[in-house]
TrEMBL record:
This is Sulfate exporter family transporter. It is a multi-pass membrane protein. InterPro entries: UPF0324_pro. It is found in: Cell membrane. Its main location: membrane. The chain crosses the membrane at residues 7-29, 35-53, 65-84, 90-115, 122-144, 156-177, 221-238, 250-270, 282-301, 313-333. Belongs to the UPF0324 family. Pfam families: Cons_hypoth698 (PF03601). It comes from Roseinatronobacter alkalisoli. Keywords: Cell membrane, Membrane, Transmembrane, Transmembrane helix.
Amino acid sequence: MTAMTRLYAWGTPLLPGMMLAATVAAASAFLGAHYGAPVMLFALLLGMAFNFLHEDDPCRAGIDFTSQFILRLGVGLLGIRIAFDDVAQIGLLGAGVLAGLIALTIATGFVAGALFGRSWRFALLTGGAVAICGASAALAIAAILPANDQNERNTLFTVIAVTALSTIAMVVYPLVFQTVGFTDIQTGFLIGATIHDVAQVVGAGFQISDTAGEMATITKLFRVAMLPVVLLLIILALRTTATGTGRGKIPTLPWFMFLFLSLAGLGSAVDLPQTLVMQVDAISRGLLIMAIAALGVKTSLKALTTLGSGHLAMVVVETLALLGFAMMAMVWLDLL
């Protein structure tokens, strides 16, 4: 059997499910562009409408492949966004503040989890998503957590919640920061430090001014750059506490983290053509939308409704805590 024949035999069963996810992703991209709404939210909702197809053998293998391998590949390609020279512009104090905000927000997630009776997995998933970069962080953290029967449902809920709250924050936060009296640079820093998803950060920042938009983007890039650091710390903690016994040996460093770091390092060492960076970033975003669509197909709306109000309350508490911590740091430390 030739290599091409083996590849055909391996890939053919995956095509129906992958085509379904790609179709949902394309429809979501069209709706997002037409209505100016979050594409990932459309992908989730449309995907859940096709939940019945996950029960069919022709689609199941491809949907599972997309929600796992394609998800990890999309996260790995996110590294093309990072240029360490750009991130360094926020300075040591700004970097320290952002690292502290990430740690405090994740810690808040564990406290809220104990108060609302939710598992440590969900606390880590939501805390990391709010602290770092929203849906992308949720997908990356979910990829390394020990598997159980609630992982995919919790991941899907987290993506929905942080995407919805990011959209609300994009409208509300600029008004709050300007009312308080922060400068454009300070407002940009706060927007980049507190809004979950990159698209909403850019939208909120540039609606104020170019200065605020540029600072918001740089600040957000630092948070994204912290993603592999946080993932590595989670892996080390899981290995140390032997929490990962549910699915065998926990990997030392997943392959998609190597890809993320390699692309970030390449982009920092070499002046890559902007066209190439934009194309790889677009591919990454497309793959993540496909993965979200596949997760939606795998999850029923009925299953999500059984999660209870505590799940949403946790994400809201973490979001408000991050906002409060950031504003206090700005005032107390007189940043920027």
